[in-house]
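Worked problem 6 (solution included).
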Amino acid sequence: MVTEIPPYGLKAYALFFAKHQNKEEFKQSELDWIVGQSMKKKIFSLLLRAGWIKKYSDNTYICINPKTIISSLLEFKVPQIIKEAEKDYAFTNLSAVEIWSDYAYVQRGIEKSPYFIKVLKKDLKYWKNFFNSHNISNYINQGTTIGEYIILIPVKKLVFVEKDGYKVESLKETIKLAKLNEMYLYAYNYIKNKYQNVTA
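Solution. The predicted structure is:
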């Protein structure tokens, strides 16, 4: 999984790629005369963890092709990352419509991919740190950016059910939401037909 990196990592990657492209291997010693030992370790750790370089042998590395990196930065990561979370959550609003409609309604594209997630107010710090550690932009109640981002909706009490490996708001609440907006008519009809015994 490729993630964004800070400017110092980007400059180091640019140096390695300018000298070696993605064909020649290189060693950590290339930075010996440029930065100190601790900074060198930090740079290589960052680039490996972020997926911008990979180990070639025990003590050599190779650059990942920039085209691969740029494409990967726009991949949808949240559906996989959320499974690592240790606190409860509930996909809500349009994210719940997506899940309950088996993605008959999809609200996302590579340009803009919001996820709406209810979390307990007391766990807000955990969630901010969790998404920040994965370089996923996150906002409280509202916000927007390019690509994937999270809208955290703090609540005092959290109610959810499990569907397809995700914690999501109840079907009944989701049907109510889908019914309110004409834009979600297809998803609303899909959900209603699939779960005929549930009424909104």
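Discussion: The chain has a mean pLDDT of 89.
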